[in-house]
Amino acid sequence: xxxxxxxxxxxxxxxxxxxxxxxxxxxxxxxxxxxxxxxxxxxxxxxxxxxxxxxxxxxxxxxxxxxxxxxxxxxxxxxxxxxxxxxxxxxxxxxxxxxxxxxxxxxxxxxxxxxxxxxxxxxxxxxxxxxxxxxxxxxxxxxxxxxxxxxxxxxxxxxxxxxxxxxxxxxxxxxxxxxxxxxxxxxxxxxxxxxxxxxxxxxxxxxxxxxxxxxxxxxxxxxxxxxxxxxxxxxxxxxxxxxxxxxxxxxxxxxxxxxxxxxxxxxxxxxxxxxxxxxxxxxxxxxxxxxxxxxxxxxxxxxxxxxxxxxxxxxxxxxxxxxxxxxxxxxxxxxxxxxxxxxx
Length: 344
Known about the structure:
Elements: H1 2-30, E1 51-57, E2 60-69, E3 78-82, H2 93-101, E4 105-109, H3 127-140, E5 146-152, H4 153-164, E6 169-177, H5 192-200, H6 204-214, H7 222-236, H8 240-256, E7 270-275, H9 298-308, E8 313-317, H10 324-327, H11 329-341
Parallel strand pairs: 3-4, 3-5, 5-6, 6-7, 7-8
Antiparallel strand pairs: 1-2, 2-4
Helix pairs in contact: 3-4, 5-8, 6-7
């Protein structure tokens, strides 16, 4: 009897602490509505020294923000890290530190329209244009060739870069890239104004709910929250109408700039690192009439890619979602080591 009472009391204490911690975390999350950034992310610190590459493109004076960790071993060369749509170069911190400790030079640019780089509204955003800007940044830094590691939308950019500039692309590693499906084969085309109006309605809680559901399988913690802070600060800030337009233009680039049909043309070693729980499927809410195909089934996409190009190396990470490098860095690190050694 005494033993049972003890367990009951311990249970009450445990439930109390869980309740208190849940309330505290909910209050902390509620404070996110006060976070605010301008379009340049002023006041948001990056993990490494920030540099600026000033250049002209499409008749405009622009600049790309970038971080660069020089190589300690010239034989290793340089790895360029390409971010996803909802992120900037800062979230590559752990990967950059790992690569640099292995002797690689690491280049981490913010693409035009993202992070701390220029955000022109009257610019033709395309993966070709962003690839060319990135190639010119490499030339500016006297980097003759590079390996590419890219995540999410960055995977589409890395693919286009490698197809455009195979002579300077030594290898590509795509981490849960989007673009493994040609979206307009399955969904209706939407005008930029559709995405603009959609983005204008975005609130900080909807960002959390989306990432919680689609990135982290219902989980949420301070680490995940920290990665969402830049986007949340933008949505809360006075520059959001401008940033929403840039975001809409980026969505148009994603839907109209497919790369998957050309995966058969890669000339360099290619590895996909796929968290198979991922269900990211742009356009799934406006599929064409009669289309039953389920977008974003990353547990199947690796196999579909292999059918297009059997030389592509596919490493599947069971139980992980859209950001395996965040959810389980150790498993991701092991996969990355294998990918860096892969030669087809």
